[in-house]
Amino acid sequence: MSEPTTPSPSAPAPESVAPYGTGAQAAPQRRVRVPHLLAMKERGERWAMLTAYDMYTAEIFDEAGIPVLLVGDSAGNNVYGFETTVPVTVDHLVPLVRAVTSAARRAMVVADLPFGSYQASPQQALATATRFMKEGLAHAVKLEGGQAMVPEVELLVRAGIPVMGHIGFTPQSEHVLGGYKVQGRGSGADRLLEDALALEAAGCFAVVMEMVPAPAAAAVTAALRIPTIGIGAGPDCDAQVLVWQDMAGLRGGRAPRFVKKYADLRGDLLGAARSYAADVAGGTFPAAEHSFEA
Fold first, then answer.
1. Active-site amino acid positions
2. Domain boundaries, the chain
3. Of 28, 50, 268, 272, which sits 20 to 30 A from 146 (CA to CA)?
4. Does domain 34-282 match CATH 3.90.226.10?
5. 268 annotated as belonging to a binding site for a ligand
6. Is the pTM above the cut of 0.85?
7. Binding residue per annotation — 173?
8. Counting beta carbons within 10 angstroms of the beta carbon of residue 236, is it exposed (0 to 12), middle (13 to 18) or buried (19 or more)?
9. 62 is in an annotated binding site
């Protein structure tokens, strides 16, 4: 295994970025970079990551001060209407990544490598990641898997591509894992830590942990120099991520246990659409103020 190439958080802190969530847009803001995230871990500052798949959500979340946006293969469930993330292709995601990177002025944009686009070899992973960096203008990529993905991570990092890892429940492997099940219980906690340490040593700048017991996630967070990002991994991770449609209440049906809804966009949009339809049917829209004179 090659020596770690991830910058040490003990190195001199990078030029700071303005506090997140302040809404201050008067001065141009610097792009969030890997050293900023490492420095935040060292200072004990927690941060939020959200998915984004289009220019409007990217603009809004960027203005809100969300430092990292993930163009996830969760677009399969939330954009394309697939039952799982498995059918998602590189061609599905590249245009979404380009839309998000074109709109986000400050946030780091991370592109998911979809199923089948990187597992064959490190060279396949590099070819796929290169497309996201060149065509999508991504700032980093994310891939799923632990120790088995070390050769892929090492090659990408040597090529100058920042890599975010993803362990615990990995949606692309749901058929092998037997569905959406918590990972890392019992002896699985040791494997989780081994995977995390291997990804850090390979050069990952952060690691997502999905659907793992909170104590196991806390132990991994304490052991790593790089940030951990939890989704269903308890409160002790350095950061948290949610699919934005879950966070904002756009998706219907039962939400996963780890989701907290911060709005009811589904209800708001439903009410707006019904009001619009009623106005059209009743002849009250368009009114004079919505019409042009001769």
1. 210
2. 34-282
3. 50
4. no
5. no
6. yes
7. no
8. middle
9. no
